[in-house]
Amino acid sequence: xxxxxxxxxxxxxxxxxxxxxxxxxxxxxxxxxxxxxxxxxxxxxxxxxxxxxxxxxxxxxxxxxxxxxxxxxxxxxxxxxxxxxxxxxxxxxxxxxxxxxxxxxxxxxxxxx
Length: 113
Hints:
Distance between the termini: 8 Å
Largest sheet: 4 strands, antiparallel
Structural class: alpha+beta
Order of helices and strands: HEEHHHEE
Radius of gyration: 13 Å
């Protein structure tokens, strides 16, 4: 895994964690799998309220990722541990899904390396 891929992986995990914590999600569990070809992230946590932006994030996570879009958000927002923007998260993923069932908020996301 290249250094840039490691940095992007950390940013994705951080963005998902920030998203969940800012929406009051508790008891968060992460699973991260890295291969030579793909990064897979699964995150789950409990919350009593469905996030209002769930549908928007689902759409953004499944927009086709392009290096131009990723570089645009990188320059516009800057990449740091404090950046939490769902547009940024969407620009870094190849595929994703977020769902709310009962009191469980679940993320599934992939990024080709």
